[in-house]
Amino acid sequence: MTFHPLLRRQLKRQGLEDDAASSSLLPAWVALLGRVSRAYEEHDQERRLLEHSQELASQETEELYATLRQERDQLEERVIDRTAALRTSESRLQSLLSLSADWVWEQDANMRFTFLSEGVEKVAGIPVAHMIGRRREADEGFQAGGEEWSAYSSAVHERRPFRDFSYRFNNPAGELRYIRISGVPVMGDDGSFKGYRGIGQDITASTLAEQRIQELAHFDALTGLPNRSRFISDLEAALWRASQRQETLAIFFIDLDRFKTINDTLGHAAGDELLCAMASRIRGALRHEDLVARLGGDEFVVVVNGITDDNDLHQIAGKLLGSLSSPVCIQGAQFEISGSIGVARYPEDARDAPSLLKQADTAMYQAKGHGRNTVQFYTAEIAERAAREFEMESALRLAMVRDELFLHFQPKVSASDQRLTGLEALLRWRHPIRGMVSPAEFIPVAEERGLIIGIGRWVLGASLRQLAVWRSQGMPVPSVAVNLSARQFADPMLLPFIEQQLRDNGLQPQDLEVELTESVLMSEPERAAQLLRQLSSLGVHVTIDDFGTGYSSLSYLKRFPASCVKIDRSFINGLATDADDRAITQAVIAMAHSLGLRVVAEGVETREQLDALRQLSCDEVQGYLTGRPAAPQDLHARLALAYPGHTVPAEAAPALQAAA
Ligand code: C2E
Ligand code: MG
Ligand code: MG
What we know:
The protein is an alpha/beta fold and 660 residues long. It folds into five domains: 5-93; 102-209, 2-Layer Sandwich (Beta-Lactamase), CATH 3.30.450; 221-378, Alpha-Beta Plaits, CATH 3.30.70.270; 396-629, TIM Barrel (Alpha-Beta Barrel), CATH 3.20.20; 632-660, no CATH class. The protein is built from 23 helices and 22 strands. Strands 14-15-17-18-19-20-21-22 form an eight-stranded mixed barrel, surrounded by four helices. Strands 2-1-6-5-4-3 form a six-stranded antiparallel sheet. A five-stranded mixed sheet has the order 8-9-7-12-13, with helices on both faces. It is elongated and about 205 Å long. The relative contact order is 0.04. Bound molecules: ligand C2E and magnesium ion (2 copies). The site of one magnesium ion (MG) has 4 residues, from strand 19.
């Protein structure tokens, strides 16, 4: 056997045989050495085993370390990434916050500010340092109240989110800012309340703009008086107070007369100046506590409290009219303006604002109808009349579309030989139920309600068409006369319309005559003169109708380029019996002739009247005696007499017989 190398080296060092096979060794010695050698080997074995297992263990530890290191590296990377992301998002938020007019705020559980972004300082002028550690509402600059404040308080009390709570804040610089905030409660993981966090906004500019809009919405920009919407709420408040105190109240509805004329002729700047002047006169004529408002256009309203006696109300109205009518200087020229006033009383006439206002308005319309510069109190009779007019207005609008309007023509003849000198077109309305309605009844309504412009144009067109038809049938009717209303002066297209109609019907201006009543001329003298000058320079003849009823003198009327005067029926009526009527008629004829005007007498019904007019050298007559107003087909017989040479169209023959 061979011993363990270590034993062999030890034996060799002792100078002994290191080989068990050596014969020099005793067998027992060899056996011992053999056992020692095996012990060595076993030890070696164990050591190798231990070493192997140590090797395995360290290998495992190494692997574990590697994984841990890797995980740590990954974690570190993630932390770096996250931190970078957080920084980006923070700086993004910062830059957005610095850009926006808003700011972010945070409060602790005691509602003390722990954080405010710099916007609050930049935009609202509230230093961040000033606010930190304070409660919002504890600051002396804080002002809030009303419903909004209680909604906010209860939201905070109940730890609920709140939105758009606005309050006022006097910043340390002493400026008043309007601020709006929204916030949400912040809760810890354990559900405990940690405070509030939210955004804030300075809304000063938009609030002030809104206030200005409100102001504009409630006050008339021109005169500074309350406007219609403000007036209605003021009136409602005044009515409520009056009902509480059992007091009376009166509304005066004021409309300026002829305002439109000034506005149209002198321009809007002059109109505005006039309105301002009138507004301050109205204001000046009243007590401080009386309400004054401008409803729009040239309409003003006044509310006076606590005056029970109608005489006193009359006196106030008189004072108002007086203040309006003293001459006013506009753009260097003097004007005399007047107003019409309607009055309605609480509680006598109505108890609510809209009704009172409407009644005062209705009464004002009636005042206007009674000639201007007058006062009218609201009465049940006025209400009835207004309702009738309204009904008539609706019916008249229908009449226009249903062709219920048509024309009659009445001859004008020369007084000496009854030669036909012209035909006057007179409007007729056949209402499907009411039958014939007199123009004296419906024309004022058409004028009042603005329908006359359309109706007037229709009359002009239809009259000229009819004249062209007669001419084409060989009847040389000299001209047609058309009555014009004052309201038609307001139609800027009247003149071009007339020219167009003349052209379309192949007629000359002198084929048309316009009749304007004396009172129409007197109501709008400037406008009438202007229009009449234009018409007569075109070649259209002008007649002053109903002369003698309007208290003007012929010499005054000479300012209008008229060529003819029509003496009113009322004078002709008494001509044969009443010495005064005869004297007046004589004077008018003489005066008219001296001014170079022709004279027509209207409403001539008897032979005596005609004879008297002849004696007085009246030029022409018109009346039932020489021809009633009639439809064109019914006039054929009359026209046949006037123009014996012409042939009557076949379709006109039955009408001719009916008329005969
Ligand atoms: P006006 O222009 O003075 O017309 C004369 C009125 O006297 C007409 O009344 C006519 O029918 C009536 N009449 C004529 N001869 C006699 C007579 O011998 N005796 C009596 N008692 N009356 C006579 P009508 O047709 O009822 O018209 C009334 C007024 O209505 C007209 O008065 C005129 O101012 C207005 N009118 C009629 N048609 C129009 C129109 O187309 N436009 C305008 N703006 N007004 C019109
Ligand atoms: Mg007439
Ligand atoms: Mg007349």
